[in-house]
Write a structure and sequence with these properties.
alpha+beta; single chain; globular; 3 helices; 4-stranded mixed sheet
């Protein structure tokens, strides 16, 4: 019988989204914890800043600044 971990293949076919206004602080904390980034903070065409990471099960998590904070920042 194969161990369950050999049977599990991450699908990465969904994404969770969260908002956090101080993305620079969050990115720094995530780097210290050695979290795997899909991409570091970047600015979208509509000027919202976002970053994407993998959770331990390889699910995609996107964190973006709230649009309220974006309007304050601009």
């Amino acid at each position: 019988m194969l161990p369950i971990l050999l049977l599990y293949k991450p699908s990465c076919n969904s994404e969770l989204y969260f908002e956090y206004d101080d993305l620079e602080e969050l990115q720094s904390k995530l780097k210290k914890e050695k979290v795997e980034f899909i991409h570091e903070m970047r600015e979208q065409p509509w000027r919202q800043r976002v970053l994407r990471i993998y959770d331990p099960s390889k699910n995609i998590i996107e964190v973006g600044e709230s649009l309220e904070y974006l309007s304050y920042r601009l």
